[in-house]
Fold this sequence. Notes:
Elements: E1 5-11, H1 16-31, E2 39-45, H2 51-65, H3 72-79, E3 82-86, H4 92-106, E4 112-118, H5 125-134, E5 151-155, H6 163-176, E6 182-184, H7 192-202, E7 216-224, H8 233-258, H9 267-280, H10 286-292, E8 293-298, E9 316-322, E10 332-338, E11 345-352, E12 372-378, E13 382-390, E14 398-406, H11 407-410, H12 419-429, H13 438-455, E15 464-466, H14 474-481, H15 495-498
Parallel strand pairs: 1-2, 1-4, 2-3, 4-5, 5-6, 7-10, 8-15
Antiparallel strand pairs: 7-11, 8-9, 9-10, 11-12, 12-13, 13-14
Bound molecules: nicotinamide-adenine-dinucleotide.
Amino acid sequence: MAVEATTLIIFGGTGDLARRKLLPALFQLGCKGRLPDNLRIVGFARQQRSDDGYRDLMGESVREFGSLAPHADEWTDFAKNLFYLPGDLDVPGDYANLQSRLKELEEGQEPANRLFYLSVAPRFFEAAIANLGSSGLAGEPGLGRIEHGWRRAVIEKPFGRDLDSARTLNDAVGRVFDESQVYRIDHYLGKETVQNLLVFRFSNTIFEPLWNRNYVDNIQITAAEEVSVEDRAGYYDNSGVVRDMVQNHLLQLLTMVAMEPPNAMDANSLRNHKIEVLRAIRRWEPADATQNTVLGQYKGYLEERGVASGSSTPTFAALRLYVDNWRWQGVPFYLRTGKSMAEKVTEIVIQFKRPPHMMFSVADADDLSPNSLALCLQPDEGVHLRFGVKIPDQGMIMDSKDMSFHYDSAFKDQDIPEAYERLLQDALEGDASLFIRSDHIEQAWRIVEHLLENQSGVSNPQPEQYDPGSWGPESSDRLLAENGHRWLGVCGLDQEAHA
Ligand code: NAD
């Protein structure tokens, strides 16, 4: 029997994420004609609200946070498929109410597909999943997904706060859903430029022969934020930079740079290759963690409202990791991320080896940057290839210059969509390539476990202080200097601009 309709149920449908990201993204998808036919969206949250009240609230959100002001006709068309049900995720009876409301909405269009989006605080994840199971809303795991309408669950980040809690949550999810029904989000993967990493690597033959230990000297991944913890101090102080950025976003980027070429873009090929990289990352003994990491805290963090007195939560981390496999043996991967840093930038720099013998004079050997390829993910999305050139009219004196590609000039007038647009569309279409599998989550937690130990003050009570607006603590530079390296320029800028 053909499936007639799809219902997207947003738990936490009135929250910040729903208002700022999910509804604007869904509206955009609707305007582009990319939503499934007969899609209904049901917001579920604690506040009392009518369907019309919810439509008004979401209309305001789309106007405030969407990239385009909604056209009245387009909005009316979209809003007629918006519904709201007040309910408490901790109350089993409210899931029965949801079941009745869904049946009412889907009447005459059964069997209907259902996508449950958990856009609520992580403490609700386990109970909500269990209740979806016991109420019958989730259906039977893995069974009859096509014939009777599929059931899927999107789970927001953070997924666990360490290995134990991630395992417990994975077990809870596994009791209700088959892994193929579960879409764990790391919204970084929905960014166009992150996906372009795959296209760049696997559709250009000229780089692949160089993409290994024979030519690559080191790889640097930076995700720096200019902002401080702002009004998120309460959450951040319990989380810190390792849980907030390293375990998920930075390790994702590392896997995409280091993975072997998959033979297809399907979810399992991609995810199998990514987890191979995580498994090859050298395991730290606790002492190695101290030698290979720098944790920092910006000056003034302790005075932020919501931060515990004397907190040792790091707001900056720099790591040196090694991927122990044939391709990457001995190549350091440097990861760096933090708040209150000099610039907002996310980039990956592949630094190639220096020439084995330099026959040209350079004014200062340090001025000659080795070849590097910078993949800039934000803010100036693009690619920069740096090479040595002769300075005109100065004998055989050399300098380093960049050849650059910029998304905004190459694809003029073309919007770069929000990550959530792509992720929502994929979840509705059943493509899990850009979502995280349970084994990936657990392996990533395993990698950062010793860092988390440092965070809890076991072996490194206080992170190093750094000035807001800088590139982090001095030890971050020393970490690279130990291997004769230094952090390279940001998105193709000169090294000096980086100092
Ligand atoms: P929020 O606090 O703004 O919203 C929470 C929503 O849950 C509200 O709609 C609230 O009414 C509802 N809710 C709370 N308790 C409930 C209960 N007992 N029963 C039913 N509904 C209840 O949170 P948020 O910022 O929207 O974040 C939601 C999730 O998304 C979190 O897991 C967060 O980590 C993740 N996330 C948020 C952002 C963001 O930009 N806000 C970004 C990435 C990930």
